[in-house]
Amino acid sequence: MLSQIGKWYPSTKLMIVVSVIIISMFSTIPTVQYVLFGLSILLSLCSGTLSNFFKTFFKSIVIIILFIFLVQVFIVQNEDSQKIWWVIGFSEIGLNTSIGLSSRIVAISSIIIWFFQVTSVKDIISSLEKANIPKKATFVIASTIQLVPQMTKLSQTITDAQRARGIETDGSILTRLKALLPMMGPLVLTSIQQIDERVLTLEARGFSAPARKTAYYSIEKTAVDYVIVAICIVSLIAYFIGGPL
């Protein structure tokens, strides 16, 4: 990553993520959750990924929050539920529950989004290798991280090919569902083919060889990384000594 924050060691950024998650899990005040969300926005701004951060956030997390809000407030029956129509009612307890739950989801998901937007896969792999993590475990982690982007890119390629052949892929929900079934076959078969090709590539590069590999890309920790980790540890200690909010 080109930004200074993006150049931080992956474990340093992971320490920030863990600290935010721990504080979020032990906090019962929504205000604290929104402060943590503000921290994620600030980090994204300093990293130069603010636009991508909001794009990802609104495409995924906002939908989940709205669903939780609607279900908890209007569907789930509580002691103070007031019937509006049929199974729909209003509950102040459900409102408070949805605010607490959604604020925690916002805080945790936002810092995770920031982490993956400022941390490249090759940095993660390099840090895992330096930590003497087994090669197979490193490969599984890297493949898992890359799975969703690769599947998204592959499905888009198949969709473009079907559109070029005259298959309707846009329009109503029913039209899109009809286009989904013909796409699943090529998507699954292509994924299986890529797995076979990846296995052959790994064997050709001596993945199973017992000898230690020479890395052409490597990252090192700096003084800034140690300072940030120390700040995170001190912040966690101070938070628990002062009493979780």
From TrEMBL:
Coiled coil: none annotated. Its main location: membrane. The keyword Cell membrane applies. The chain crosses the membrane at residues 12-29, 61-77, 97-116, 223-242. It is found in: Membrane. Pfam families: CbiQ. It comes from the Bacteria. It is a multi-pass membrane protein. One of its GO terms (cellular component) is plasma membrane. This is Energy-coupling factor transporter transmembrane component T. Keywords: Cell membrane, Membrane, Transmembrane, Transmembrane helix.
